[in-house]
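This part of the workshop introduces the protein records we will be handling. As an example, a complete record with its sequence and its structure tokens follows.
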Amino acid sequence: MAIFSVYVVNKAGGLIYQLDSYAPRAEAEKTFSYPLDLLLKLHDERVLVAFGQRDGIRVGHAVLAINGMDVNGRYTADGKEVLEYLGNPANYPVSIRFGRPRLTSNEKLMLASMFHSDQVCGSSRS
């Protein structure tokens, strides 16, 4: 069994310390022609695969890079919107790298608060 993350939460439920041993999971890169046979949706400021699993690309994977340029949320490194860029037939063929998105700071805080709720319920019963 491996430890992927460590969260230290105080009694009030505040996150004191958090450490991720992030090792990128399987990433898939594929070259596509127009039209794109995957359905991409914007969710929580990320472009995610909503429909169309294939070749190691799964529903829930995020767009990490387009033509070797990293994607930050919904924008490419040069400031273009990902969905608009992929909607333009002139930009094809295009190479897209997909993978599991990293947790945001807000998601880490929500996860730590769930641990706190479990600890409070467990300590009151023991």
The chain has a mean pLDDT of 79. Residues 120 and 126 are 10 Å apart (CA to CA).
